[in-house]
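Lab notebook, design round three. We kept the backbone fixed and only want residue identities now. Task for the bench partner: fill in a sequence for the structure below.
Input structure tokens:
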């Protein structure tokens, strides 16, 4: 026998009536239970405390002073020569000269008269740091390592073989590569060239940067002297020229002295640009 279930709308919900005494008990706070009063007091205290605390302010942004970084030109590093160039460190030149005097042959060269730290410029315009020794009978060009403190090799020019001495400003030929040298090196550079022959070098000698058949040697002041206010005598090619002239007159050398520009035919020019711009001919900290 089936049992009928009345639809939800027809169900009767019976609820017990709420006592009026219970509702009236919460009309005034003095009639609230102690637990309710404690909870309410805590909530109100937190509300008052939060109202008393001022709102957090964002931190003040302080302006930071940023120092402007100025790029340093490449050549300006030479102003710190004592830090970068080994030959300019304290006592380096005197120590080098004391070592280089061992290459002097008393029979061929005679006594030492003076010493300089100059730049030798070969026929390809490659600048090379050299110790130059003026002796009674010759001029010695010494390649000295300021890093290892030893002599690598030396070249001798006998004064009796010198036929001409040219003193003047170093200039370049009219080739495109030489014009680039003039733009990259605008400063004036005085030089001195010793000629043992006035004949032009052969084709293979001119196009060989390591050739030893070039009948002249070209010098100029040290690169640090060119960029400093005062040029010390041991780095000044003019001082070397004055002492050389006095000595050659004293020994009766018949070489002619000419004051005119010294032309450097810089061949292709690319090799010397790379060599000189990176200071490969100097003992420097790299």
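Proposed sequence:
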């Amino acid at each position: 026998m089936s049992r009928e279930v009345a639809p939800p709308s027809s169900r009767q919900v019976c609820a017990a009536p709420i006592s009026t005494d219970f509702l009236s008990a919460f009309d005034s706070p003095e009639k609230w239970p102690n637990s309710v009063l404690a909870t309410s007091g805590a909530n109100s205290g937190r509300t008052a405390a939060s109202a008393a605390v001022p709102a957090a302010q964002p931190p003040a942004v302080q302006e930071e002073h940023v120092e402007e970084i100025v790029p340093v030109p490449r050549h300006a590093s030479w102003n710190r020569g004592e830090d970068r160039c080994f030959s300019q460190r304290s006592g380096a030149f005197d120590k080098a000269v004391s070592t280089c005097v061992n290459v002097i042959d008393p029979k061929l060269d005679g006594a030492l008269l003076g010493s300089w730290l100059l730049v030798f410029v070969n026929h390809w315009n490659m600048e090379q740091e050299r110790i130059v020794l003026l002796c009674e009978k010759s001029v010695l060009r010494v390649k000295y390592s300021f890093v290892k403190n030893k002599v690598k090799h030396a070249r001798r020019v006998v004064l009796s073989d010198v036929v001409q001495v040219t003193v003047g400003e170093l200039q370049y030929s009219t080739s495109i590569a030489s014009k680039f040298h003039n733009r990259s090196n605008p400063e004036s550079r005085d030089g001195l060239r010793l000629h043992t022959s006035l004949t032009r070098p052969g084709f293979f000698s001119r196009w060989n940067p390591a050739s030893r058949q070039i009948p002249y040697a070209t010098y100029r002041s040290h690169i640090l002297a060119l960029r400093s206010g005062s040029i010390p005598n041991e780095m000044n090619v003019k001082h070397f020229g004055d002492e050389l002239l006095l000595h050659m007159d004293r020994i009766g050398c018949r070489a002619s002295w000419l004051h005119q520009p010294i032309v450097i035919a810089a061949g292709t020019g690319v090799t010397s640009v790379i060599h000189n711009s990176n200071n490969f001919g100097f003992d420097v900290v790299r």
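Keep this in mind before ordering anything: Residues 7-15, 47-51, 65-82, 183-187 have pLDDT under 50 and may be disordered.
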